[in-house]
Amino acid sequence: MKNYIRFFSTFTFFVLIFFGTETFAQIQDLVTDRPDQTESALVVPVNSLQIETGFSFEKDKFKDDGIDIENENLILASTLFRYGINDMFEFRLGGNYVINKTKIAGVESELQGLENFTLGTKISLWKDKEVITHLAVIVQTTLPFGNRELRPDKFEPAVKLTVSQDFVNDISVGVNLGFENDSGINKNAYTYTAVFGYEVNDRIGTYIELYGFGINKFLPVHHIDGGITYLHKQNIQIDLSIGSRIFSEEKYWFGSLGFSIRLPQ
Length: 265
Description:
Layout: H1 2-19, E1 49-64, E2 67-84, E3 89-104, E4 107-126, E5 134-142, E6 156-166, E7 171-182, E8 187-199, E9 204-215, E10 221-233, E11 236-246, E12 251-263
């Protein structure tokens, strides 16, 4: 784990030092797929590599048959690499390292390792329209790679439709609708997100969001979150977000801090 963190920190420092101080006036505005759960409907520019990464902490408490259960997850370097292939397609590769601590009836256990590796593409269907400003679809799969106890047993495909609408006064709305396979129970989870965004100025943006998922024969799960983004440079963004579960007796919350950088050709 220490070697993994050291490598990522060194790589990040190198990227920021050698690329973060340049001016990229010819590149389109930086649009990321974090920190909210709603994926953007835009692909990254052609031949540009966009790295979106962050650290998050989440905690939940609930009862199962009267037994108290607590979970804590520290997610390190949750990273998504996006590369612009052409005006319609981008390549996507993601993954993270998690440290999980569980307490069941007072008995603690710990599990850590690589997990949630995804591979896929985003396809732009149209952009810059008056009605439904941008529209895209994401096709990807979670890979059976990483810690044996954390990874899925087989590939878990997912499809997501991403829609965004820009309004006057720096207001925008985004919606995602999709499904993803859960190989553990051999069922599909149907997902949704809806985000309201407001740009305070050229550098600061804010948002509030509802998102959740549902699986047949299981109660749906809903969350609310919000956050702020700061455009440090034209190609570097810093973000902060918090959120919690709603309409549930389970106590769940999370916080996240991250940054994104785009490296043009």
